Amino acid sequence: MPRKLQTFDVEVVDKEEISQGILNLAYELWCLSSTAYGPKGQFILVQANELCGDAFVLTSSASRILDRISLDSSVGVLMAHFIDSHLKQYRDGGHLCILLVSKLLLELFSERYFGLHLALEWSVAAMAETEEDIEWQDEEALVAAVRGIVAPKSVANAPDSLCKLLAQTFVGHIPWLLHHPTDRPLVKVVQAPSQSTAKALSHTALVSVSCPRAQLPLANVIIALFNVTIRPSVIDTPSDLKITLTVDTGDYHLAMAPSSSFINEAEMLVWRRIADKLHDYGVHLVLSQKKIPAFLATYLNQLGIAAIERLSIHHIENVQAVSGARMLSDWIGAGITKDDLGFLSEVSHVQVGDKKYIGFVGRPTRYSQTSRTRPVSTLIMPCDDTIAFDELDHVVQAAMYGLTTLLVDAAVVPGAGVTETYLVKQLRLKATALSNHRQLERIVECVADALDSIPAVEATFSVLDGAAVKRSALTTALTLVMALLRLESAVVTAP
């Protein structure tokens, strides 16, 4: 039973209770992850919102499963956070990490942990023997790297042709990412139920907002982009108007509150001034995160300036990237310069299935380190099932992120279980040399057995895994196991 320390408002949990909690959690994690991973992996239904019965996802991705697991024990929280630190860095390799942790805990929990550090060192050294740097000019190698991320996630039902499309799409982002290696590629996925094949639109952002059809299409478009508030912020509207009356007997000072009509007229005056300035700059289109007041929208229309309102922050980010417009935080006429404006080759209505979008097409350009313009891609994907599409979008973003990490560390290793098989062989060879140290021999053999128990991904094509991802998964797993095997007691916040 936990001992409560009143002074510190905490409980001390003894080793027996901790041990049972770790073993129970390891068993549950093994069952969950082994069910979702591999060539015969099954979908896991995860409740996304406990207050909404129909809010759920079907997934085989480790990060999406761990995000919503309810962990009541302090050790469970520790394990989840430890693994999550790996997932946040690489967005891949989560199942490998979970399977290793749970299998080793189930096999080794009653034994000493000495020897795990040797197994880790030997595993990392053996994996280094299989590493080679990916050649960015080698299209097949890039496709193989995408397969390494996509293939184990069966719920997305992604055809192999998607891997080639993702690799080609990523190549278009490389010039910009070389200057910004920590940023994610801007790739949006749009569902097209009736489409037979996927296609990619370069330098294009699709936004599901409305615009009067009569105002589109537009070509060679200069745009202004506002992302915070529509109200003019520089208006002289004092709480009191001071009036001085001079009569024969002296001066009398009166104060009176301005009428709402006065304030409205002042706002309209500022809006007219800003709209006139945009017109003088040759602006064709104004986009705003907030609703544009009817008066301003009408006046812009009279000046021949189209307006699109209520864009989400994600839409604004994509339009800003494809156009190079500066995001203006307020309608301050004096603060707007020509340098704040963006340019689009075309703005038009686009029909995808039964949904209507507005397509913003940018001009292909050389992306410099200081430019506000950056590559934007839109993938139109055939997918009838909304739930499967949600997972497909997650997989696409994981693939883009995984390729981005290869720009920092280009080392790859054979995928589809080939590297794990090689590590198993090398560890078992090392274990035979430890026959005089039975404890160490058993520990190394257990690590080899744990790696051997991980399902291989069936692949008829070449598959590559990022070496950094796999190395991190191994290191995270064995470090976590060593930490948990050292636990004698735990101090947790009292309920």
Automatic annotation (TrEMBL):
* Gene Ontology, cellular component aspect: cytoplasm; nucleus
What does the record give under GO molecular function? ATP binding; unfolded protein binding
- Any one GO BP annotation for this protein: protein folding
Record's Pfam families? Answer: Cpn60_TCP1
Protein name in UniProt: Uncharacterized protein
Species assigned in the record: Aphanomyces euteiches
**What does the organism's lineage look like at the top?**
Eukaryota, Sar, Stramenopiles, Oomycota, Saprolegniomycetes
